[in-house]
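Bench notes, bay 3.
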Amino acid sequence: MIFDKVSMYLEKVRSPVAFFIIFVLAFVAWVRSNPRLFVRGESYLSDWKYTHFLFDYGEGFVKRGFVGSFFSEFSNYTSYSLVNIFSYLVLFIMMFVFCVLFSKAWVQRKDQFGAFLLMAVAIMSPATIQHFAFDVGRFDLIIYIIFIITLFVISKIANKSAFVTSIFVLSSLFISILIHEAAFFMVAPLIFVFWFFVSSNFRSSAFQSVVLLLVFVFTYLVSTKGGYNALPFEEHFNELKGVYGKRVIESSLNVIHSTTVEDNLKRTLMAGLTLKRLIHHLVFLFFMAPLFVFLYCIFYQIKGYLDFKSKLLLLSAFSPLALYPLGHDHFRWWSLTLTNVFVVLTFIILRDRLVSDIVFDFVEKHRRMAVFVIFVGLISGPIGITGSFDLLGYASKAASYIFPGFKY
């Protein structure tokens, strides 16, 4: 059997070779996610995301202006080419960080073919590297690099110094929220629960409560006081357009002018309650069903072996879905949620030998299911932002060639 031969080979590889194999799989996911980049050299950095890099603190504090201010410190003109290079560098770093994380279980347990398969599912999933490569230039990539590093640091120092851990968590979350205030929902709950998961004594819990309160207040202030007020919207838009040209996108700039919860709810209702969005949700459920079943089966196997803290950690992974009514990037929230689930599962496996044995044995026994999940994920392509998969766009183009006048 080919599976047995692959398993025997993987047991013999050394760590550098193992990481090379992992990175090759990540590169395959990247190629599938960005075919136009590798075929025609076309960047996936959209003008909408590029416009966000033009937000800075030059005319006062503004939410999401942290990265733009960083650029303005080194250059008076934030060109598209500069942002493009930076964005793909961030993507490469993020790929490296994810490969380090997801490979740890396999590198430590090369006797388990199931460990390799689970890592491959996580690395090649439409929700992880595929999504982030498709959404290159989004501030989420920077936030998730900080997020993974923060979890690693917590796992190493939380039981040694609650004070140092507090300073590190506070700093990483403050920076993440300055980058994008949605980080409070994207990663903050998981960071706090993971900190509690690693260290839950009275001293640590006290520090966790204080840091959580500070992060909450800081997020509230950034969200409510971070609107742009120096110029009216039209004047601000025309000013940026005069400098940066047609790449300045009106709807992207609008996010720092229309900043209230009511504005966000209105935008979400207008964009989300449509037939097209419903179709995208149905397509999403169809192609993600194999992964959902696969993950459900894994958690069903281990649920009796998870304590309260582990279950709470898994529950915290779903926090990005709280953004559903506040932002119409519905499939982006699903991608971040599933990424969180993979991250949580990896850390639980690394800290609990019994659970890891159960998970790896299950995946190895159901290796055809794991391979099928990977195959469907590569067929569907990356989870999108306001749309489900790029496959739907390709299908629409094909239909327009076959049936002239067809428009989706």
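Next record in the batch:
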Amino acid sequence: MSKPSRRVIDKPSPLTFHEIYGKGITMSNNNRQATRASGFGDAIVFSSRTIRTYEKIFLKHRQKDVDWIGSLRVGFCTSNPQEKFTRETLPSLAFKNLRDPDGYFLRACPDELLRTSPIIYVYYSFDGQIYIGGYDQKTPAQAVLTINEHSGPYFFFSEIYGKTDQIELIDESTLPNLSASTNNEILSPYQDVLQIVTKKLNSDTNLRNLQFFNYLYSSNTSHNLTFLPTNQHNVVMTNDRRVVCVDNRKQKSSYAFVANPLKVGDVLVCRIFDCDQNSPATLLFGLTTADPNALKNQTLPDETETLIRQNSSSQWFIDNDISCSVTLYDELAFWFDDNGRIYLSINNRSPIELKISKRSSDFKQLTLYPFFDLYGQVTSIGLYNFSTQNKLNFNYEINNRELCPICCENLVDTELLPCQCRLCQICAEIIKKPTLISDCPFDRKHITQLRPLPL
């Protein structure tokens, strides 16, 4: 889905902090500077008005030189704080009380970003992606969260937490000029997607296990579905050919063909292992009667229309850009029916029908190979296996795992006791130092032990 034209009606009113804020906050500079006086709770602040799509909120932040875990949290919410809270009823900790299902979307800023950028910015896009970036950094802002169930406009809100004890709203017109120290080149946050993905898979074996579609397979199912090896195109693969990655993000297209055909009644299950959510598009999915073995030694064109024209003797059924929001570790299930309708379910949610430009009444008689073009947000995808449609159960109860709220890279798999806050094992072991008295970074309760979550 291409980005719509941005409508600029007039300049928004100056942004300040809302009069509803935590009891541990002191306001100054005409409610543009918020300082946490002491402690770790009661430090929530909101914007004085709603924020427009793509409107950047610039925050100058102050970091304490202390050995603490936990960092500034920023995000957006759907409710006017004045209609929900007073200063007395505002919760002490956003992490435990203001959650995504209630319309409060908050994420921790990466420690490295706060350490290297004295001014950060946050904004949300038209498709519900929340981005965080550093004003003085060449790398683009990174998407940290997708808002799926709510629509804007949104209020900005923040929890001044951890090493950060002060934030100040900065007007864009007063920002320092960085033209002498930066250029217009957009750098990818990752230089080698295959290396990144392989490292993640090797260090966290849980990533290879499905969460949302695991019920489709018995415990002894052999996951032997593979991508077809290609010689002259913009993809690289893991040694087992189950995971494919974009080789060069500056090129437009990255075709990946599944080596086995998909039949009516089959379900193809995949998982996203890397995302570049600065792209406005998602990915292309299609089915073709062209034998991918005949294409593997060819240099394939960037434009899909040219690929189809060059292989016009075959049939092609394609959605050029799947209209949905995806994020890291999402699981995708594709299948089609007798009438040529192709469906997608993300994370076992209700399926959506893909936009296929033409259909065929003889799908049962066709040998159809699935393929992807990873030209958009999805820069790495892994195959699991075919299952069958009669096993799909969208009401199946799933104990899904979220991303670790500290590193935003690994899945939650460990619980801190006694407070029961959850994060990944790597971050948990850093926090729980054997020789020191360790406190939870979220509520500052003393940690007595770490408990692995059941698979």
